[in-house]
């Protein structure tokens, strides 16, 4: 897009039209000095103007002309400096850490990885070769980069390489509490949940709100669920905890508590009660700790179970059991798929074996034939054919005169 803008601006003295990226950074903005019409038409049967989202036809369009979203996708050849509509990303770098209970693998990707000539492939290769058991790839939509952990039991976090850097933030990879999964909280134990609602919030006006954490994946999802109530405000405060404010009017106390046998409110650090007082009431939750992205799988679940057993952590054991159950379901699902594939292969093998047998039989009939017998059979077939032709000839010669 930047090259197209430069080409248009190189002809401004002739066309009177200048180009830039639109406000959303997803298309082209054309402006004519002094206003007036801007005409962008196709030539030689092409579709370039349409594909760039600025086609007007012969009738033109009044300046400024805002091009439509052309949905540029990220490829391995995309320059990092071309991201964000050509504004690029911070070049200070990112730090990657992948830690288990016994070892930590870390690396810092510095400014050299994010230079003006660096491409997305440069970044992918740097992450994949960092020795942190992290794997980076362009996401399926082509809109960004995903980084996964390949270390069973490991916890992957990504931070800025410098205190003032913005690289990880610009890439959407910065590990933050808001983006942390609930399963990453409390040292990887996660947030307890049961079937149905897990925590209850009672406003001072007597209204009750029930939250099912099974419907939430991240901490921000929980915050949004609480904040959806018109009389409650939920945020993640600077201390790293969830802060819930009751703005309703009433004589009751403001209370957040566990519900239905779950410990979700306690695990989220917001269990508590505030005595009624004039104005809004606030519960400031305890600071939450999260340990980073963890690969999902059987071995990760086994590592979590081992750690919980060694530390005599009943809740951790229960959490690991849930992960094991999920992993078992995935294994059973994979076995079912493999079984179906094997059954299909066996059917194909049986069909090929049958066809091979038939082919061998046909080849045997040709190669191993008794020539004397074949000659006799041929003569017999020829006699039968001649007899049939003779009968047919006599029938064709029959007319009504034969019956008079």
Number of alpha- plus pi-helical segments? 10
Which class of secondary structure composition applies to the elements?
alpha+beta
Oligomer: single chain
Instruction: Please mark out the parts with pLDDT under 50 across 5 or more consecutive residues, or reply none.
Output: none
Across the major sheet, the strand order is: 12-11-15-16
> Main sheet, how many strands, which sense, barrel?
4 strands, antiparallel
Task: Please indicate the count of domains.
Answer: 4
- Rg, Cα atoms, Å: 37 Å
SS elements, strand count: 17
Strand content: 15-25%
Instruction: Quote the average pLDDT.
Output: 86
The backbone outline, from C-alpha atoms, is extended
Order of helices and strands: HHEEEHEEEEHEEEHEEHEEEHEEHHH
Describe, in short, the structure shown.
By secondary structure, this protein is α+β, with helices and mostly antiparallel strands. It has 10 helices and 17 strands.
Structure, described:
The protein is α+β, with helices and mostly antiparallel strands and 404 residues long. Helices cover 34% and strands 18% of the residues. It has helices at 2-9, 12-15, 48-51, 120-128, 167-170, 219-227, 264-267, 298-310, 314-367, 371-397; strands at 17-21, 28-32, 37-38, 61-62, 65-66, 94-99, 104-109, 134-138, 145-149, 155-160, 199-202, 208-211, 232-236, 242-246, 254-258, 272-274, 281-284. It has a four-stranded antiparallel β-sheet. It is extended. The chain starts with a helix and ends in a 7-residue tail after the last helix.
Task: Please describe the topology of this protein.
Elements: H1 2-9, H2 12-15, E1 17-21, E2 28-32, E3 37-38, H3 48-51, E4 61-62, E5 65-66, E6 94-99, E7 104-109, H4 120-128, E8 134-138, E9 145-149, E10 155-160, H5 167-170, E11 199-202, E12 208-211, H6 219-227, E13 232-236, E14 242-246, E15 254-258, H7 264-267, E16 272-274, E17 281-284, H8 298-310, H9 314-367, H10 371-397
Helix pairs in contact: 8-9
């Amino acid at each position: 897009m930047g090259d197209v803008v430069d080409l248009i601006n190189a002809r401004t003295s002739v066309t009177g039209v200048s180009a830039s990226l639109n406000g959303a950074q997803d298309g082209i903005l054309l402006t004519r000095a002094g206003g007036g019409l801007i005409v962008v038409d196709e030539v030689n049967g092409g579709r370039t103007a349409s594909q760039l989202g600025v086609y007007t036809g012969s009738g033109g369009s009044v300046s400024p002309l805002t091009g439509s979203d052309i949905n540029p996708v990220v490829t391995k050849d995309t320059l990092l400096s071309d991201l964000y509509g050509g504004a690029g990303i911070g070049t200070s770098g990112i730090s990657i850490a992948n830690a288990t209970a016994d070892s930590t693998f870390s690396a810092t990707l510095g400014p050299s990885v994010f230079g003006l000539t660096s491409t997305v492939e440069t970044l992918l290769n740097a992450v994949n070769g960092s020795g942190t058991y992290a794997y980076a790839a362009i996401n399926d939509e082509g809109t960004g980069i995903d980084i996964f952990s390949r270390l069973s039991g490991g916890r992957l976090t990504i931070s800025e390489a410098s205190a003032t850097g913005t690289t990880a933030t610009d890439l959407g990879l910065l590990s933050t509490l808001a983006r942390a999964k609930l399963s990453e909280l409390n040292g990887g134990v996660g947030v307890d949940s049961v079937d149905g609602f897990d925590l209850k919030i009672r406003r001072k006006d007597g209204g009750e709100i029930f939250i099912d954490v099974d419907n939430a994946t991240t901490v921000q999802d929980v915050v949004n669920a609480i904040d959806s109530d018109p009389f409650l405000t939920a945020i993640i405060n600077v201390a790293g905890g969830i802060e819930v404010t009751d703005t309703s009017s009433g004589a009751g106390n403001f209370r957040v508590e566990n519900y239905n046998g779950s410990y979700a409110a306690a695990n989220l650090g917001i269990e508590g009660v505030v005595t009624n007082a004039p104005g809004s009431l606030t519960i400031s939750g305890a600071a939450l700790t999260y340990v980073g992205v963890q690969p999902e799988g059987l071995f990760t679940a086994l590592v979590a179970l081992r750690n919980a057993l060694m530390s005599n952590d009943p809740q951790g054991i229960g959490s690991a059991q849930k992960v094991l159950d999920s992993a078992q379901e995935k294994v059973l699902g994979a076995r079912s798929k493999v079984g179906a594939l094997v059954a299909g292969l066996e059917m194909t093998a049986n069909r090929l074996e049958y066809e091979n047998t038939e082919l061998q039989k046909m080849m045997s009939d040709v190669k191993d034939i008794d020539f004397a017998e074949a000659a006799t059979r041929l003569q017999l077939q020829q006699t039968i054919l001649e007899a049939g032709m003779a009968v047919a000839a006599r029938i064709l010669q029959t007319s009504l005169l034969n019956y008079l």
